[in-house]
Specification:
Strand order of the largest sheet: 1-6-7-5
Number of helices: 6
CATH topology of the largest domain: Helicase, Ruva Protein, domain 3
Helix content: 10-25%
Order of helices and strands: HEHEEEEEEEHHHHEE
CATH architecture of the largest domain: Orthogonal Bundle
Shape: elongated
Strand content: 15-25%
DNA sequence: TTAAATTCCTGTAAGC
DNA sequence: TGCTTACAGGAATTTA
């Protein structure tokens, strides 16, 4: 599922491939989005030239001068580049296509959790921004009783972490996902800060993580490499050699995996 | 203010 | 084998 490193990987590819190209065609293939895209936001792009792509957290924005189009991949969304013309009806789960005269950008989203258009929500800092510091974590967690993992995945606290990178960062920092955030000690905040930056940087460097066949692929259709560096996510035994445990209760309504030996 | 629960959806896995 | 059920996930929304 796309988290910050995956979205950043997509952003870099699209910026390289599409900047300077002019949008010639918009094909909305399935009008049955969970949140239907404002048609005008899409069709208004016709004739505009792409000036770049930006990313905030897991949100991606296509920039075309004054106009922009916000995209979120949800959990199964994929942006695919093809040399085929738009309008191929045999592509399954294709929600819309943007034609660039010879190149086509497809938004394919089987589970329809993806979003198109609309404003960006409020975010916490980017993990690789200088504003993200151990002191920031201390202030953000002050007095909070919620599980640390829930806060790490709260985009309003810190932008870009999802289940995979939060799980990995907590393992590397030796902190159990169920710990109340406000009770972390200074040394733990420091190693957590370091661990978050490490997994995000590695995730970007390795072009995201592709954990199974249906998982993330970049716009060329290429898998990422971070799955080979994963220590506990999706594994039965941790990279530490210990067998992993699940928290009794889900955290932020999803199961949380940890190493009962290494994570205190 | 915070936090927990609910909702969207469908491919996959597990259970019978 | 075929059917049913449970589950997974991110974020907006609702409820406590």
């Amino acid at each position: 599922m796309p988290e910050l490193p995956e979205v950043e990987t997509v952003r870099r590819v699209l910026e390289t491939e599409l900047t300077g190209r002019t949008i010639t065609e918009i094909v909305v293939r399935t009008p049955t989005f969970y949140r239907p895209p404002p048609r005008a936001a899409l069709t208004g792009l016709i004739g505009k030239t792409v000036t770049g792509f930006s990313r905030r957290g897991k949100f991606l924005s296509l920039l075309a001068g004054e106009r922009s189009l916000v995209l979120h991949l949800g959990m199964s969304g994929r942006l695919t580049l093809t040399d085929r013309p738009a309008g191929n009806r045999s592509v399954k789960h294709c929600r819309f296509e943007i034609g660039f005269g010879g190149k086509t950008l497809r938004f394919v989203d089987p589970r329809r959790f993806g979003r198109v258009g609309g404003p960006l929500p409020k975010f916490g800092p980017e993990p690789l921004d200088p504003a993200f510091t151990p002191d920031f974590l201390k202030a953000a967690f002050q007095g909070r009783k919620a599980a640390i993992k829930a806060l790490l995945m709260d985009q309003g606290v810190l932008a870009g972490l999802g289940n995979i990178y939060a799980t990995e960062a907590l393992f590397r920092a030796g902190i159990r996902p169920s710990r109340p955030a406000g009770r972390l000690r200074r040394a733990e905040l420091e190693s957590l800060h370091e661990a978050i930056r490490f997994v995000i940087r590695e995730g970007i460097r390795l072009r995201g993580s592709t954990l199974d066949d249906e998982a993330f692929l970049d716009p060329y259709g290429k898998p990422g490499g971070f799955q080979n560096r994963v220590c506990i996510y999706g594994r039965r035994e941790g990279a530490c050699g210990h067998s992993l445990a699940k928290t009794k209760r889900p955290i932020a309504s999803r199961s949380a995996v940890y190493c009962p030996v290494c994570q205190k």
